[in-house]
Amino acid sequence: MAERRYQQLGGQHRPTMTIESPFAAIEPTRPPPRPKRRKKARRSHEVSGSVRLLSALFTLALIALCGGAAGLVWFDRTSAGPGPLMETRSFTVKRGDTGRVIAARLQAAGIVRSENLFVARYIGLSTLRRFETGRPLVLKDGTYKLPAGVSVDKVLEILNRGRSLPSLLTFPEGSTTHRIVQRMLADPRLEGEVTNMPAEGVLLPDTFDVRGMNRQALLARMNAAQQDLVSRLWAERSPNLPLQSPHEAIILASIVQREMGPNDDPRRIASVFVNRLRKGMRLESDPTILYGIQGREVDWSKPIYRSQIRKPTPFNTYTIAGLPPTPICNPGRAALEAVMRPAQTEDLYFVANGRGGHFFGKTLAEHNANVVKWRAIERELRKRRRERQAAEAAARRTSAADTRSATSATAASASVERVRQKVVPTIPIAGRSNGTAAAAPGSIPLPERKPNR
């Protein structure tokens, strides 16, 4: 059998014929040998699977690192950037509030945009602070002034610094101890109960910063403040005062406190009582009547009737000589100073002048003349009060009439509108008031009072 082969001659393939032997011709045809595959050379850049895995992990880590860095930059800028607060306002952190509670209240108040952002920033800064100084970031209780556009970082700084606004509570001068305690119990800023009720007249009414204070501790503070003031004033008192002890000075100061008007000179009021004590005269102070009848829950606005003036009580200075057994209120600083250093006068009487002060007199004749002046002023005040009440009643009647007119006009306008829109009209019924305007209360005559002193 002949096998066709190709031979490259002169750049061309030409077929050649090879004659086999006769024996080979009668043998079965054998397939040509399978060509050997040429092994491909391994390329130099191919790597193993473990290397590829490491490369992928490194790539993912790099992407995560870049994303974390970008997120951290965004987190820092957002925390330091301006917040949504439009105007300055106060914010209170209560004792025991957690960071989550504070964050929720800040978001509800429109101070921060995100509760979660605030909590995350708080945790991050607290951890960093603990690492640097050994102490975490603490949000202190108190009331703070937060400016408009305050950032999360600035809020944390303000709350951590703890320089909160003063939480002030004022106790009016001349209040009884019972009224002071009631005012404390009604104020939610104070904590604790009053376990020991102080005596009358041992507290110094003033304005106090009650931030985080206990009620009993505040009472002790008011008592200590009065003791310090009285001790200093007693050491500097005028000579020859008809007072035997600081306690007597406090009793007289409590009477001066309840007697003096807003336009009075406390030292002149005190001089009247000091002069009376020196002469052995009764003090005849109206507030002692009220305190003797009503006690520690006294209502100083109550009128005094003639029948009460001579009603004997341990405090009624119309019926007892000298000072009452205890103060009738807690006097303020001005009254205490006035009693320790009263004005040098010869006045023995005073009566109201209708302008927040008093007329003073040295003799009974001068006092009676001043009483006549006061009665004329009193009549004029009553007349003005009746005229004011009549004017208010007329204004109420006019307002009621205007309201009825406006209601009728509204109903008429509605009817015209329905006709204009060609809607079958419904007959309107104008609203009427079944009642009439309340009559002005009649003037209640003031009770007959005995002229002061």
Compose a concise summary of this entry.
This protein has 453 residues and is mainly alpha-helical. Helices cover 47% and strands 8% of the residues.
Structure commentary:
The structure is a single chain. This protein is mainly α. Helix content is 47%, strand content 8%. It is built from 13 helices and eight strands. The protein has helices at residues 22-26, 49-80, 99-108, 115-133, 152-161, 177-186, 215-235, 246-259, 266-279, 286-294, 306-309, 333-340, 364-420; strands at 5-9, 12-16, 89-93, 142-146, 168-170, 207-209, 349-352, 358-361. A two-stranded antiparallel sheet has the order 1-2. Strand 1 (5-9) and strand 2 form a beta hairpin. Helix 8 crosses helix 12 (333-340). The longest helix is centred in the last third of the chain and has 57 residues, at 364-420. The radius of gyration is 49 Å and the shape is elongated. The model is unreliable at 1-9 and 422-453 (pLDDT under 50).
List keywords for this structure.
8 strands; 453 residues; two-stranded antiparallel ribbon; mainly alpha
